[in-house]
Write a structure and sequence with these properties.
The complex is a heterodimer of chains A (446) and B (270).
Chain A lengths: L1 E4 L20 E3 L6 E4 L9 E2 L6 E2 L4 E4 L8 E2 L4 E11 L4 E10 L21 H10 L12 H4 L10 E6 L8 H8 L1 H15 L3 E7 L3 H11 L5 E6 L8 H9 L15 E5 H12 L6 E7 L7 E6 L4 H7 L7 E6 L6 E2 L13 E6 L16 H5 L6 H10 L2 H6 L10 H5 L6 H19 L1
Parallel strand pairs in A: 1-12, 2-15, 10-11, 10-13, 11-12, 14-18
Antiparallel strand pairs in A: 3-9, 4-6, 5-8, 6-7, 8-9, 14-15, 16-17, 16-18
Helix pairs in contact in A: 1-4, 3-5, 4-7, 10-13
Chain B lengths: L1 H24 L6 H9 L12 H11 L11 H12 L9 E5 L20 H6 L15 H5 L5 E3 L5 E3 L9 H5 L5 E5 L4 E3 L7 H7 L9 H5 L5 E4 L3 E4 L9 H5 L5 E3 L11
Antiparallel strand pairs in B: 1-4, 2-3, 5-8, 6-7
The chains are: A alpha/beta (446), B alpha+beta (270).
């Protein structure tokens, strides 16, 4: 069954720029000179290292184990020697963070006992699939990095009926999910069925934006052999792929504000990359040690999609993509709307890194920030129905309690307001500032 | 005409009487000392005492919940006044002042990236700063704007400067700094190790010309044994032992340690 969905609250039409890299097949990026693996790759408690400096490790070997339920294991992406365990600069947390540094030996030797867990889903129980997801250190690969084993073990009092597979990839420029769906459709659907089985949900909907017709076709074919799967084609509009936006558009169910999650309305949402990683873990036994990363933008010579080892330096990937074209203005980890600008290229690919975007000097020009004229465009654009102009105005003046009362904490930082603002005000940055202050005050109160 | 005057007049009398009664009946007993104490306090509402503004402190002192010397910016003079109002003895206030523990200005620290965005250190801190050093001053002047006594300014080289004569040690800048680069130290201490980087020496050398490289020369040189290593990577002075001899400042190979007792070439950081 195919449904075509057009409705959406808020959002902005952005040029998707996918043509730069959508035709580039996924290539293995190779083994760099150094891999940096942070203990905090995910939401939740940091993992705890199991190796010591000078230990030799093999590809797929467990090097850090999860702490508690909401945490993820970490594995060596290739064979080599542990060079150090030291704090490195974490590009997303923007602070020094404990990391295992591995010097690869180039042999790419897999660890002993790396074998397929099963060849079909009938032989696995729901608990076994959850255990595989946990052992393989799988996290949500859409960017938020929520540990998948925790997601597919929702609280018992929640009644779940639908699982959404998120292939909308609404961020401009990025094509990692697109290529995965096109090249590995069978595995993605296999992984999706595994996710559904593990969480005990019988209805699955594959959601794809209509700017990826070839991926829709590939997924449609892969789905044909399975029962209980539907396809939803969505019109292209940002931020289509936010899990709350997707739930609302596809099922018409409004997710309550934070701490509300889609499972409060009976829905689970996972990224296609996550489904693919789980399928790999089941079919080959290989834990999450590599992911597809798009290296794109007008500032790189050859926009590409790479299968990169987790921990590969950004500079290495840009080199592999033919280096810079012209003078680079800005390098962003993630997409242009929600990604974070990098101050150094010596940072590694994380489990949640969907892409590396290089903008040219001309594109990265900062236009002057003008005063707010209260036009209200940001209110129309906000997919969550917030009032970014007031939250940001309060944040700017240090009125944190007022910003909180305007529901600053509900903001998901999609960037629509800042994109549409005619005064070019850094609305999201101001709201983020308020959010950080609110959470630190909440922590202090506790 | 007459009825209107009468009605309003009588209504006025009734309400007036009621108000007069209410004022007597529900009178709030206020400690007269609160107003006196409030008048004696500096009135900057800096928050250094930990109470909500000077009025908050005045009430707490009058109730006996705060000591007479709680006002740090006011110093001994205010403490004595409060002590005489409260009729009690008071310990002297140790005068403090703010010190910016970073010399990594735009010339001496490596700039990793240009920053465009909200001109607030908290916003830049969320992005990791524009300098390579993940510990140093961010240079957007949030501390300067937080200072209630106009005792700070941004130097042209991108670092905040504390005007010692004006600094009262209230700590507003310390609380405003997202990187904890500013600390309060006893006002008579003049020798400081101006670095907060916990990176290893080789790393620090790459991005800063004046950062602490943890060579430990100062630790060995200090006759008072006042300097120790924090986490093995950063030298820190125990101010209770330091006697301002300044030997460490002369030995420091990176010029991270400054001695502000005599005029020096390094004056720009003072």
């Amino acid at each position: 069954m195919i449904t075509i969905i057009k409705k959406m609250i808020g959002g902005v039409p952005v040029p998707d720029k996918k043509e730069l890299s959508e035709k580039a097949p996924v290539e293995f990026a190779g083994i760099p000179d150094e891999l940096v693996l942070f203990m905090s790759h995910h939401i939740g408690a940091p993992a705890v290292p199991l190796v010591k400096p000078k230990d030799t490790v093999k590809r797929g070997q467990l090097i850090a184990e999860p702490q508690g339920l909401v945490s993820a294991a970490l594995h060596a992406p290739t064979s080599g020697v542990v060079k150090a365990i030291e704090p490195r600069f974490h590009p997303v947390l923007a602070c020094m963070s404990e990391a295992i540094v591995i010097e690869p030996d180039g042999k790419h030797e897999p660890v002993e006992g790396l074998a397929p867990k099963a060849s079909d889903l009938d032989s696995l129980s729901a608990e076994q699939i959850r255990a595989i997801a946990r052992e393989a250190g799988i996290v949500g690969l859409g960017g938020a990095c929520f540990p998948t084993s925790a997601k597919i073990t929702p609280p018992e009092d929640k009644h779940l009926d639908t699982y959404l597979l998120n292939g909308s990839e609404c961020e401009p420029y990025l094509t990692a999910d697109h290529r995965v769906m096109l090249e590995e459709a069978e595995k993605v659907i296999f992984g999706f069925k595994a996710l559904m089985k593990a969480s005990g949900v019988s209805r699955g909907i594959v959601c794809i934006e209509d700017n990826k017709p070839d991926a829709i076709e590939a997924m449609k074919q892969a789905m044909s052999g399975y029962d209980g799967l539907e396809l939803a084609v969505l019109t292209t509009r940002y931020p289509r792929g936010g899990e709350k936006q997707l739930t609302q558009a596809v099922l018409g169910r409004e997710v309550p504000p934070p701490p509300g999650l889609p499972y409060d309305v009976g829905v689970l949402v996972s990224n296609v990359g996550t489904a693919y990683a789980l399928a790999e873990a089941i079919l080959t036994g290989l834990p999450l040690v590599e992911r597809v990363v798009t290296v794109t933008g007008e500032g790189v010579a050859k926009p590409s999609n790479f299968k990169a080892l987790i921990g590969t330096p950004v500079s290495y990937l840009i080199e592999k993509a033919g280096g810079f074209a012209g003078t680079p203005g800005k390098v962003i980890m993630g997409g242009p709307m929600m990604g974070c600008a990098l101050k150094s290229l010596d940072v590694p690919v994380l489990k949640g890194t969907t892409g590396i975007l290089v903008l040219t000097k001309e594109q990265a020009v900062q236009e002057p920030i003008l005063p707010c004229i209260k036009c209200g465009k940001c209110i129309d654009a906000c997919p969550l129905g917030l009032q970014p102009l007031w939250i940001s105005a309060y944040a700017e003046r240090g009125f944190i309690e007022e910003a909180e009362s305007f529901r600053a904490m509900d903001c998901m930082e999609c960037g629509c307001c800042a994109y549409i603002c005619p005064a070019k005000r850094p609305l999201v940055q101001l709201i983020k500032m308020a959010k950080a202050e609110i959470s630190s005050r909440r922590k202090a109160r506790r | 005409m007459l009825s209107a005057v009468l009605t309003l007049g009588i209504a006025g009398l009734v309400f007036g009487g009621f108000l007069a009664l209410a004022a007597q009946r529900f009178k709030v007993e206020e400690d007269p000392r609160v107003a006196e104490i409030l008048a004696a306090l500096p009135g900057a509402n800096c928050g250094a005492c930990g109470f909500p503004g000077c009025a908050g402190l005045a009430e707490a002192v009058a109730r006996g919940e705060a000591p007479c010397n709680a006002c740090i910016p006011g110093g001994d003079a205010v403490a004595e006044k409060l002590a005489s109002i409260m009729g009690m003895a008071c310990e002297a206030v140790e005068p403090m002042k703010a010190v910016v523990y970073c010399q990594g200005d735009n010339d001496r620290a490596q700039i990793a990236a240009e920053y465009h965005g909200v001109e607030d250190c908290h916003a830049l801190h969320q992005l990791g700063g524009s300098k390579t050093c993940p510990y140093g001053c961010l240079g957007l002047g949030t501390c300067v704007r937080a200072c209630p006594f106009d005792a700070m300014y941004m130097a042209p080289n991108g670092l905040p400067v504390v005007i010692e004569e004006k600094c009262t040690g209230c700590g507003a800048c310390v609380r405003a700094c997202p990187r904890d680069v500013i600390d309060l130290v006893p006002a008579d201490k003049q020798v400081h190790i101006l670095c907060k980087s916990y990176d290893k020496g080789a790393q620090v050398r790459k991005y800063c010309q004046v950062g602490c490289i943890a060579c430990r020369i100062c630790v060995r040189a200090c006759p008072q044994k006042a300097i120790s290593m924090d986490k093995d990577t950063l030298a820190v002075i125990d101010y209770s032992l330091c006697d301002n001899c300044g030997i460490c400042a002369t030995k420091c190979p990176m010029k991270t340690i400054v001695d502000r007792q005599q005029p020096k070439e390094d004056k720009q950081a003072s």
